[in-house]
Amino acid sequence: MDDKLMRIAMGKFATGVTVILSENESGELRGMTANAFMSVSLDPKLILISVDNRANMKSIIEQSSKFSVNVLADNQVDISKQFAGQLKEDKEVAFNFSHEIPVIEGSLTSIVCDVYDIVVQGDHTLFVGKVKHLTVNEGNPLLFNQGKYETLTPVSV
Fold this sequence. Notes:
alpha+beta; three-stranded antiparallel beta sheet; single chain; Pnp Oxidase, Chain A; Split_barrel_FMN-bd; 12 strands; about 15% helix; 3 helices; seven-stranded antiparallel beta sheet
């Protein structure tokens, strides 16, 4: 099977959209859009993100040993596009800090983590984060499906 077929198959799984944030050694905020995120454990409270080994974010998280995962709301498409490098010019993004980690204002959930474990698998690195703090806000999630942004449409049962 080729890489394109694998991408098409994985694209059939609709996901939420997150922005991973951390700070480099100079204290500069860095981020990337990601949909490879999941809950791992409630006891201890662990989550997992997957970062391409070629991404700058990999070394930033390795150096800082901390990061946040910000689950985007359906009105935050521009934020997703900005951190995915899809906008021609940067727009201002409102940040707060929680436990000295940057988080995005207005995200549905911001999860602040210390790196708990690092596992390299193929062309990606899996960062398991131990949750230090989280915030939850009301709203609907931004979704990504088959290469496009979508919003939630409830199904009547």
